[in-house]
Amino acid sequence: MNPYFVGFLVPIVVSLLLQKRRKVGNKRGVPVDVGGEPGYAIRNHRFEHPVETHWEGITTLAELFEKSCNEYLHMPLLGTRKLISKEMESSPDGRSFEKLHLGEYEWKCYAEAFKSVCNFSSGLIRSGHQNNERVAVFAETRAEWQIALQACFRQNITVVTIYASLGEEALCHSLNETEVTTVVCGQKELKKLIDISWQLDTVKRVIYINEEGISAELSLARNSTSWALESFDEIDRLGSEAPVDASMPLPSDVAVIMYTSGSTGLPKGVMMTHRNVLATLSAVMTVVPELGRKDIYMAYLPLAHILELAAEALMAAVGASIGYGSALTLTDTSSKIKKGTLGDASALKPTLMTAVPAILDRVRDGVRKKVDAKGGVVKKLFNIGYNRRLSAINGSWLGAWGVEKLLWDRLIFTNVRAILGGKIRFVLSGGAPLSGDTQRFINICLGAPIGQGYGLTETCAGATFSEYDDTSVGRVGAPLPCSYIKLIDWAEGGYLTTDSPMPRGEIVIGGPNVTKGYFKNEAKTNEVYKEDERGLRWFYSGDIGRFHPDGCLEIIDRKKDIVKLQNGEYVSLGKVEAALAMSPYVENIMVHADPFHSYCVALVVAARNELEKWALQQGVTYTDFTELCQNKEAVQEVLGSLAQAAKQTRLEKFEMPAKVKLISDPWTPESGLVTAALKLKREVLRKKYEDDLAQLYA
Ligand SMILES: *[C@@H]1O[C@H](CO)[C@@H](O)[C@H](O)[C@H]1NC(C)=O
Ligand SMILES: *[C@@H]1O[C@H](CO)[C@@H](O)[C@H](O)[C@H]1NC(C)=O
Ligand SMILES: *[C@@H]1O[C@H](CO)[C@@H](O)[C@H](O)[C@H]1NC(C)=O
Ligand SMILES: *[C@@H]1O[C@H](CO)[C@@H](O)[C@H](O)[C@H]1NC(C)=O
Ligand SMILES: CC(=O)N[C@H]1CO[C@H](CO)[C@@H](O)[C@@H]1O
Fold first, then answer.
1. Over 553-593, what HEC string results?
2. Quick check: is 13 in a domain?
3. Handedness of CA 12, 15, 16, 22 (dihedral sign)
């Protein structure tokens, strides 16, 4: 008999025998009595009061880092790969790509990192920066970023963070609004700054991270700006020669002003105090099991995102190691990695990583493609294994982690796991909802749980988090120990806390994690933040959720995305879009509802392959794809397909767009039409396609 078959028969029999012993469902969130607007509130089942700090006597991030460095002295903290060579490679269509050959990780231990932080901190003051002025860090995720951040904390200097993908206008706005005097940046960012230098009234000093080839930008900056230009190393040297005493912050001092890429208008700066961030770190401590010095963390998401900033601060607090990489060099097959050399994850072998759903989707598609390409026995085995594991995770807990798992892992999933270094034990996902399918896929292939979080920059990323042993999909978990979550009625939208079978309503988040508000924007702050009669602060998220009986939250809608039509019916744009996206002709879709009409319309980015296939079959002729998108028959075909999707998903008649416009150009984050997490920027899209939308309603 084929040894493979013995391989799966034994475990199947064993796990069938064990399957009866199901895990008893436990309550992860329990109701709690709170003040403020009436609603249905839930707290974490283990903590009666919101957690403020996990570390006794520690009240700020600066204290936390110092304590940790004194404790873990010679353990590795910050790891960076040395560049061995850089080459340009050209693809068949003539475009050229940069390919990197990167070396092993080289580490700075906690004691060395602390020395660098103290030096940079002193150097900053010696270079003329005043404590009450703000520093902006505008660079890719890397060790210097973390050092600059911690250095500022030690001098009670507020750090302003900006997304690298924000446009010029947003960049200008955030630097100007916070009156930043010193910017820490890399080469690419320096170039962007020079382009807008004439609009930056307050910037006096630019500290650049030395990179090969930066001299061109430096010379340009010297010629065209009045900035003082210093290298990162120079500031370090300045500080080491003339140390300055630390000037530690208070818990209520603002640690970071984080500009969020809102889906509308200019970005808003969220003020986070040391207490806010500390509360979130303390809460996440309780979520990830056995976090500690054995952990190695893969750092590659933008540090300007609260998820990454909080994750790295947490790693540095527990004695773990942080290895830096980038999304484009993450795996051996990543686009910037030279063929035959190691990607970041293979070189680092991390145990923990954070991810946004878009990246996990990419990993899943990559694995599927590879398996399909192999075909034959490999594909069959993979599918059998996958389905066995799927039903095991779904049903019996013993089956999920027992003997059979070991065998399947040995047989097939080891190879998949190797893509991310082979040692991952926990993945934190946040930033946008993760599809159930992807969650399962990663669960099974990596053999590691995914903690899915829900939180906003405004709540310092802390709100809910799914516990590591929660194997359900589509939900975002129970409240973190630092937050209370309350649902309040939104009668207009038809969501009530008295709804059956589950209470539904707008999600309101309260606790020490809730931030002070938006920088220089009192009106907006007062609109969405409220303090109750018991002194607790609440943030009104605008998201609609429902609570499952075990106290876990599910996000079901967004208030902003619900429009009341002229005839009084409510259309939930997101829900309709998700339903219609099932049509094969849809690559992306935005439904638009005008309150002055009784029907909605849609912009559809057409899936090129599918539409061209249809045109070929129908003998429709066209010169280019843009022309095909204007073809009346093509529009009819897509409408028909949408109607079918609407029927399958049981949409109401008024929810089905009456007219559509086909778009030939994809919507990408670079074009500014969707966010980095690929969420639609409705306002921007509406503006861009103003005329088309007007025509659809004409
Ligand atoms: C920290 O800086 C802020 C803003 O400059 C200031 O208001 C606050 O008093 C400082 N905190 C301490 C402990 O000096
Ligand atoms: C910068 O801010 C000042 C006031 O803080 C304002 O007068 C000026 O117009 C702003 N400039 C830009 C380019 O936004
Ligand atoms: C800067 O100015 C110097 C001298 O005026 C000139 O030689 C050099 O080409 C300029 N560099 C750039 C990048 O404009
Ligand atoms: C998993 O369980 C859910 C309900 O508990 C069920 O609807 C679903 O079909 C199951 N999936 C598999 C693959 O067993
Ligand atoms: C800014 C904020 O909401 N701070 C609160 C943090 O939590 C403590 C205790 O729960 C409150 O006293 C603060 O007002």
1. EEEEEEHHHEEECCCCCEEEHHHHHHHHCCCCCEEEEEEEE
2. no
3. negative
| Number of the ligand 1 atom closest to the C-alpha atom of 247 | 14
Per the listing, tokens 């040692």 go with 423
Burial class from Cβ neighbours inside 10 Å (0-12, 13-18, 19+) for residue 635 reads: middle
In order of 174, 202, 228, 236, 240, the CA distances from 205 in angstroms are 16, 9, 5, 15, 19
Nearest protein CA to atom 5 of ligand 3, as residue: 223
Domain of 205, CATH number, reads 3.40.50.12780
Task: Express as a percent the part of the chain with pLDDT over 90.
Answer: 52
User: Is the CB of 90 within 6 Å of ligand 1?
Assistant: no
630 lines ligand 4 (CB under 6 A): no
Last residue of a domain, one of 328, 361, 387: 328
Is residue 178 a part of any domain in this protein? yes
CB 387 near ligand 4, within 6 Å: no
Hey, what are 663's tokens? 């778009």
Written as one letter, the residue type at 179 is E
Encoded tokens for 536: 């607790």
Domain contains 321: yes
Are 420 and 353 in contact by the 8 Å Cβ rule? The answer is yes
pLDDT at 25 over 60: no
- pLDDT at residue 394, rounded to an integer: 65
pLDDT of residue 397: 46
Over residues 400-409, the pLDDT tens digits come to 556 677 777 7
pLDDT on residue 12: 46
- Each residue of 592-622: pLDDT tens digit? 998 888 899 999 999 998 999 999 999 999 9
* Angle 171-336-218 from CA coordinates, rounded to 5°: 45
Going by C-alpha positions, the residue among 290, 316, 289 that lies closest to residue 303 is 316
74 pLDDT band, cuts 50/70/90, is very high
Mean pLDDT of the chain: 87
Q: What is the 3-state secondary structure (H, E, C) of 628-641?
A: HHHCHHHHHHHHHH
> Which one has a higher pLDDT value, 190 or 94?
190
Q: Stretch 533-561: mean pLDDT, rounded?
A: 89
- Residue among 294, 308, 301 nearest 349 (CA): 294
Number of domains present in the structure of the chain? 2
Per-residue confidence at 295, pLDDT binned at 50, 70, 90? very high
**Span from the CA of 511 to the centroid of ligand 5 (angstroms):** 7
Distance CA 170, CA 161 (A): 12
Q: Reply yes or no on whether the pLDDT at 23 is more than 60.
A: no
* CA–CA distance, 645 with 650 (Å, rounded to integer): 8
Distance, CA 149 to ligand 3 centroid (Å)?
33
* Kind of pairing between the strands at 570-572 and 537-547: unpaired
Query: Confidence band (pLDDT; 50, 70, 90) for 264?
Result: low
| pLDDT exceeds cutoff 60 at 522 | yes
Q: Which domain holds residue 651?
A: 565-697
At 484, phi and psi to the nearest 5?
-100, 140
Ligand (nearest to CA of 203): 2
Contact between 481 and 283 under an 8 Å Cβ cutoff? The reply is: yes
Residue where a domain stops, chosen among 328, 352, 383: 328
